[in-house]
Amino acid sequence: MHPTVFSEPQPHTFTVFNPSTQESLAHVPDSSLEQTRNIIDRSLHAFSSWRHKTARERSQLLRKWADLLTHNTDYLAGVMTLEQGKPLAEARGEVTYGTSFVYWFAEEAIRSYGDVHPPMAPNQRIMVWKQPVGVAACITPWNFPLAMITRKAGAALAAGCTMIVKPSAETPLTALAMAELAYQAGIPEDVLPVITASHETSPTVGKELATNPKVSKLSFTGSTAVGKQLLGLAANNVKRVSMELGGNAPFIVFDDADIDAAVSGAIASKFRNAGQTCVCANRFFVQSGVYDEFMTKLKREIEKLPVGDGFKDGVAIGPLINEAAVRNVTRLVIDAQRHGARILAGGMKHPLGGNFFYPTLVADVKAQSQLFCEEIFGPIAAVSKFTSDDDIVRMANSTHAGLVAYFYSQDLRRIWKTAELLEYGMVGVNTGIISTEVAPFGGVKESGMGREGSRYGMAEYEELKYVLLDMGKQFGETTQQ
Questions:
Q1: Does 200 qualify as catalytic in the annotation?
Q2: What is the annotated signal peptide range for this record (predicted)?
């Protein structure tokens, strides 16, 4: 089940490239439809034994896996930087973050409790059991090639499901390395198989995972457009799904905010992973009274961000994932200028060439521009000015996306009101980083359905079974005194 990685091209393989240098890194098997079906069959067979392991046994295996991930942090981070491009320090941070989910669900495995309900008759007992849904599959993106897998697989395996992993064609090496450590920990390969597939083959593999009735659950992280396609396919056999889709996160700075803290939060939220995250701040809204101060300070901090290969010391901004990503952010900047926006920093390809782009600050962005309406997925801070609280809530909610929102304020009444009115699944108040294994991660509206992480994440892989036990009329009789 564990695909071999080749140093030279082989029949039915595809090439993995380094986005910093465009050099070939490896050649990975390009799975066929027949191979995908075989993996599903083997995963279903493995489910019959994995589900019957005790919760303690599954917990111990997950903890061994987490320990191995921790002990191999530097190796995994190096693989990630090679194929994804993020700075090495960020890659180490992702390994730590991703491992935290495995540790978390190792503990949750032994705390998945059912219920006993008050019966309607004295001779009856009502029970609610939690049982694994069956074979699960996940399709994961390239921007977090380890954490997006562990966040799903940790929950699935803890619940007693098997999990088929389909990583992005851009970043399969991290997934394979991570899975190898799971096998070393004692998790059977058929319990956590990895399917690698090229961009051309991935739609076929994804369709099979979404439509094959032997797969009981599909979890997807990626674009809204692809998510909608998978939802339509999964609907044919009423497959259980979790969808973590695109975002268009507002980052609001009120006039009573701590401006220095807001600038620090903006840098952390917007420019992590070169702006290539679904929870990146996408639209900055700054109240008119502090607009100039915020822009001056943000510009100064943006211009300090070093751009370069992720392995070089001090680099904060690595490459975008590929040439298409560079073309996309270039298009967005040009369109924003066409609508009257001003470029205060960056706005162009970096002299390093290739997939490198300057961290960029765009002022006076209009609601009509594509930069305002689309998910940027690049190192561009797009800033607009606002005046009243009512206006900003309306503008922040004026999108089909609803993943995460951020705002900065020191007024407690404003904080409560704004947090309640924002139509988002997650809200960061006076912080630019919200992700943690202990809290539910997910969005509303077209940003998806379901939650990952926390105790709610494991529930996505469990079915509730109601059992009514009738013990006969004699059991319910009482003795007359």
A1: no
A2: none
